[in-house]
Amino acid sequence: MSILINKDTKVIVQGITGRDGAFHTSKMKAYGTNIVGGISPGKAGQQVEGIPVFNTVEDAVKATGANASVIFVPAPFAGDAIMEASYAGIELVVCITEHVPVQDMIRVMPVLEKHGTKLIGANCPGLITPGECLIGILPSMIFKPGNVGLISRSGTLTYEVVNMLTESGLGQTTCVGIGGDSVSGLYFIDLLEMYENDPKTDAVVVIGEIGGDAEEQAAKFIKEKMTKPVVAFIAGQSAPPGKRMGHAGAIISSGAGTAEEKVKAFNAAGVPVAKEPSEIPGLIKEKLGK
Amino acid sequence: MKIHEYQARDLFRKYGIPVPEGELCHSVDEVKKKISDKDKLRVVKAQVLVGGRGKAGGVKLATTKAEAIEKAKQILGMEIKGITVEKILVADAVDIEKEFYVGLINDRNTKSVMLMASAEGGVEIEEVAKTSPEKIIKMPIDPTMGLMDWQARKVALQLFGDPKQVRQAAAILVKLYQLYIETDSSLAEINPLVLTPDKQVLAIDGKMNFDDNALFRQREIIAMREADENEKKELEANAKGLSYIKLDGNIGCMVNGAGLAMATMDMIKLYGGDPANFLDIGGSSNPQKVIDAMNILLSDKNVKSVMINIFGGITRCDDVARGLVAALQEIKTDIPIVIRLSGTNAKEGLEIIEQTGLPVVKTMSEAAKKAIELSKK
After folding, report:
1. Nearest CB partner across the interface for B106, out of A76, A106, A142
2. Which CATH architecture has domain A10-121?
3. Dist. CA B147–CA B140, nearest whole Å
4. A256 Cβ under 8 Å from any chain B Cβ
5. Closest-CA residue in chain B for A105?
6. Statement: residue B124 has pLDDT above 80
7. Closest alpha carbon within chain B to A188
8. Residue A149 neighbours by CB under 8 Å, 6+ apart
9. Per residue in A149-177, pLDDT tens?
10. CA-to-CA distance for B13 and A221, rounded, in angstroms?
11. Active-site residue identified among A24, A99, A115, A247
12. pTM (2 decimals)?
């Protein structure tokens, strides 16, 4: 088992003929992801990496039965691409594109709700169920199947932590990069609930950062609803207030969204917070009684 | 992106939100020329992009024209949080019966634009939010409908008693929302929105921020950009595909990925050092990016050592190592550098760098300790 994606997930790539789209399509395909089609308006009938290209998501869904989509189209068109996928009945949309305008993401939300579409991102590295399915740009070689789930607002920091988990013998069920924007799709609580209900996941790593109060809400959820152990790390302890630290959502505004508050909330919920990433595998092992 | 108060006022006026008369001035001469000879109560306000200008003495009242000129002399050229005041707004001061706060933000939790209002105007709304959150009215706005009249009225009714004022305030809210959406704003505040003794509702002070990701479709807004020195450096870095923020410490950091860059700064702090910057070079091994990044790092004269922290994912460590070596050979500097490489093909990457004699380590903690040690030499 896993969450969101597995070997049966049928994936289409929106923006498959672009440079990044084509490159990562080949990586995903090589990993074994079942890529059934790509979208590039006006290029129907062509092939990329042996994968058929369609003009619209609707055409691709009709022809292939795709149920997941990954988006590589440029930022000005990403919101539109998410909506197209949602209208076409795609269940899971993963938007890799960064720098998507916030108002575009806000306009997307009611559409997703209407069609029951799940969104990961935007501005995220995607997700992976090791050994089964990779959707996005994650470096697949550092992942290994196992029983730890991981949710992260960051990209490379995730790879850093996953690499440490794998090297210390802790494989993963599914790892999800939820992205660094302020208005995004699925977030900590949505995914924690899925991990709690996934029989294969025994523990979860949450990698948060400054900005917003999603970590505090996650801490509350963990305390009230979760039976499985969770370990956290918060990036940005040394970040100054009022400055956006790379990610659009990583900003301490008027004293709110500090790392200190988040660490406090996790500690109050019985969630140990690693002082540095290298402590994470040890904390997980401790929780799992290994 | 932030704009000045006078620019926000211009936008308010363009959208039909009433503001008191005022003139933007860059010099005392301009004040003499631009404002009328009539003696009346005026307010002289420093135009700087930092908060707390009132406390710093950047806002002063004047009862006569002569006094306004005197206050302008005092404020022009003064320093507020390290920023020199180059512009002032000389505006008519209005009598105030009551002050309110209204604002729009992009709300992470409801994933919508949130209208906020409070009868506690004129103060830091964040303070009100902390101490008495019940005093803030919140209304999430459905993006498919926009702010509807009844919603604006519902909020205005909680602030004003008289139906005429409710209508005036509701109209202002609807216009503010229209302005917010059409300019891809990320924050639009009127603080305070005031009721005058002659029962007019006016916007006295305004603040607007804009979504950097949407500037590509906001030419008029980009044209309003007036970056200060630190921002100029950050924008210059952005133009080169780098994300840079100057901090006060002495250990320069160069990292791939924003989360890892933050974690690197944290690590330096954890081991007793002080990071000089946040710098995310993104996910490529392009030597030019490393050269650009080093140049920006080393332009900060506080920097005593540099920690390069790279996790090779899709971009393999050996490629990154070749890029680093090429870049570092081009940049001649006496500042000691420590490199940490991990991830895909780390072993090959480490070997390539070792051959150049630069200190290279495998873990973040080692690198942080080493960089701190080098910074003290």
Report:
1. A106
2. 3-Layer(aba) Sandwich (3.40)
3. 9
4. yes
5. B111
6. no
7. B109
8. A3, A172, A173, A174, A175, A191, A195, A198, A201, A203, A204, A205
9. 999 999 889 999 999 999 999 999 999 99
10. 45
11. A247
12. 0.92
Range(s) of chain B covered by CATH 3.40.50.261: 229-375
User: What number of residues does chain A have?
Assistant: 290
Residue B284 confidence class, pLDDT cut points 50, 70, 90: low
Residue/partner pairs of A47-56 with CB below 8 Å, 24 or more apart: A48/A16, A48/A17, A48/A21, A48/A22, A49/A22, A49/A25, A51/A13, A51/A16, A51/A25, A53/A16, A53/A17, A54/A12, A56/A84, A56/A88
| B131 CB burial (10 A radius; 0-12, 13-18, 19+) | exposed
Residues of A in contact with B265 (CB under 8 A): 236, 238-239
**Are residues A163 and B311, on separate chains, in Cβ contact within 8 Å?**
yes
Q: Do B311 and A159 touch (CB under 8 A)?
A: yes
The pLDDT of residue B156 is above 90: yes
Q: Do B243 and A246 touch (CB under 8 A)?
A: yes
Superfamily of domain B229-375: Succinyl-CoA synthetase domains (3.40.50.261)
CATH architecture group of domain B98-222: 2-Layer Sandwich (3.30)
B241: number of Cβ within 10 Å: 15
> Which residue shows structure tokens 């991102």?
A121
Distance from the B266 Cα atom to the nearest Cα atom in chain A, whole angstroms: 5
Count of CB pairs separated by less than 8 Å, A with B: 175
Cβ–Cβ gap A106/B113 under 8 Å: yes
Which pLDDT does position B298 carry in this prediction?
87
Q: Is the pLDDT of residue A135 over 80?
A: yes
Q: Over 90: is that where the pLDDT of A221 sits?
A: yes
Q: What is the pLDDT of residues B321-330, one digit of tens each?
A: 888 888 888 8
Contact status of A6 with chain B (Cβ, < 8 Å): no
Kindly report, residue by residue over A272-281, the tens digit of the pLDDT.
999 999 999 9
Give chain B positions within 8 Å (CB) of A275.
270
